[in-house]
Amino acid sequence: MKLRDDEKAMLFGEAGPAVKWAIEHQLQVGRMFDAEDMVQVSQAHMMADPESLGEAGVNFTEKLAADGAKVCIPMITDPRGVDLSCYAPIGQNEGMANLERRFVAACQEIGIMMTNTCINYQTIMPPVFGDHVAYGDTGVVIYSNSVCGARSNFEGGPSALAAGLTGRTPRYGLHLDVHRQASRRYHVTKTPQDLMEWGVLGATIGRMAGSYWEVPVIEGIEAAPTSDQLKHFGAAMASYGSTPLFHIVGITPECRVLADVGGDILNVTEIDDNATATLKQPFNAKGEAVDVVVFAAPQLSLVEMGQLASLCGGRQRSETTDVIVCTSSQVYSDATAMGYISAIEAFGGRVLVGTCFYQQYAREIGEANGWVRLLSNSAKIVNILGGYGYQPALASMEACIASAEKGEIVQ
Amino acid sequence: MTTELCCHVGIGPTVEGIALVADDNFSARYDLDRFKGVFSRPQHKLYGQSYQDMILVLNTAKGGVATAWMLYEMTSRQIAPKAILFNQANTILAQGAALANLAMVDRFADGDVTQLITTGDHLRVIPAKGQVFITG
Question: A21-65: per-residue pLDDT in tens?
Fold first, then answer.
């Protein structure tokens, strides 16, 4: 790879051992993907929950902090794994909380802003068209690439951290025009209505595309979706397909017409009701008792919190069904002011701040609370949690609340 | 008889071990019980099988970014595969391999690696040269 003089200085250790580690790490990855040089990035966003980090990851980050690591660009964080104001009640222990405390302290020492959110594009500072960034969290990356027109690969925690320290990332993948052209073309016969349906459509396309290196272009969406709809659509697509970018003709900014992304020369695949029903079928569990209803993955926006609060009004969850809601601290304060938190809590729901359910020791909290049958309106979370010992089911937000009220799945 | 497979230059050290193969995808978060060292997702084709010290041969990555940290965490406890071979890795898997110093290669010249290698094959993986040898 061609390096500038300042990058060579980093490699020679002139900016300290932490930056030397960072650029060495980036060069290894860049070589694997044939990057020719580095590209400067304006922001970094790091996923690093304590379950993923473990003792080793926390030790690693503490060592960087001790070596004097300091970020040189704005760097923010994905949801945490422990809400330190509410962990014992959901079955997390002091060991988990202490790991979290140590990691947060190390991040703060490095100068990272602990925003703890996977909806930074709705709440913090969305990237702009053409903006090169180093984002973690697949949902953040796919939304930023597709809806904002920014340029990021999936940057895992270590690589996002490296980008924060060097202010750049290897120029490969979605930083290059050639990898942003469509490679798969889909025509949707029915525009989804609610968030769950958008997630199922995204999951269906993601599973069909099936690779990080495929870029779907989608026709047939009749009107501009909302930010929340595209959030669920993209998050589910990324979860099922490891897909980092999509285009929707006439809606997303790089695709005014099909030919803009080379879609006009691709064969088209129809996405009809059968395709989405096939994806959803394993998550149908009508009539079965439900242990926990989860609203998360991604964290809820203020609008979603309002919708949920409205559904909860005047109702009460079943004694046998817990309700967990995950949102960011940025949304939480507004949702408190709007009365949404009190409405959800009056229903019997528990609102966790700055976490996301699947990132907070999902296996351990499931075992601690006896949660097996889990219901959500997130197509992403039901895809993830099967490996954690849950029996996940999928329903609309309305049906999730009705199920929590009855104690069994109504849809 | 030794068979040589050529692939893209990868990441990590030269290793030898026994192959565990499936035409399926991979995520450390979605698919593994990392403490027991087994595939825990019921729908995965390697469900119930131990991956410890095996050379995994799989199609591609799926899902999220957590695998980057998780590979490092797994190797620190020595309950990890010796190497992972993919038809196509994604960025997260490569980043995790770099941090964990785990051998990883992809993009095989001779076709689908999940068909070229069989579970139980003895492999020698040389990421720096983009070479995999089936030695027995």
Answer: 999 999 999 999 999 999 999 999 999 999 999 999 999 999 999
| A384 contacts chain B (CB < 8 A) | yes
* Chain A stretch 224-243, residues whose beta carbon is closer than 8 A to a beta carbon of chain B: 238-242
Per-residue tokens: A113: 């802003």
Annotated domain spans of chain B: 3-134
Predicted TM-score (pTM) of this structure: 0.96
Check whether A350 has a pLDDT greater than 80: yes
Q: Beta strand A184-188 with A75-77: parallel, antiparallel or unpaired?
A: unpaired
Contacts of B68 in chain A (CB under 8 A): 156-159
Rounded CA-CA distance A326/B35 in Å is 26
pLDDT tens profile A108-149? 999 999 999 999 999 999 999 999 999 999 999 999 999 999
Give the per-residue SS3 of A177-225.
HHHHCCCEEEEECCCCCCHHHHHHHHHHHHHHHCCCCCCEEEECCCCCC
What is the DSSP track for A210-278?
-STT--EEEE---SPPPHHHHHHHHHHHHHHH-----EETTTSTT-SSGGGGTGGGS-EEEE-HHHHHH
Judged by CB atoms closer than 8 Å, whether chains meet at B92 and A60 is answered as: no
**Domain B3-134 - what CATH class?**
alpha beta
Q: Does B129 touch chain A (CB under 8 A)?
A: no
- What is the per-residue pLDDT for A409? 98
Q: pLDDT of A296-317, one tens digit each? A: 999 999 999 999 999 999 999 9
A82-103 per-position pLDDT tens digit: 999 999 999 999 999 999 999 9
Q: Residue holding tokens 């509410």?
A: A86
User: Which pLDDT value is given to residue A386?
Assistant: 87
- Domains of chain A: residue spans and CATH: 5-177 (3.30.499.10), 181-281 (no CATH), 284-406 (3.30.499.10)
Q: Are B25 and B84 in contact (CB under 8 A)?
A: no
pLDDT of residue A224: 96
Complex ipTM over 0.85: yes
Number of other residues whose CB lies within 10 A of the CB of residue A315: 14
For chains A and B, count residue pairs whose Cβ atoms are closer than 8 Å: 138
What's the token pair of residue A145?
A: 């690439």
Give the number of other CB atoms < 10 A from CB of residue A346: 15
Interchain CB distance below 8 Å, A57 and B60: no
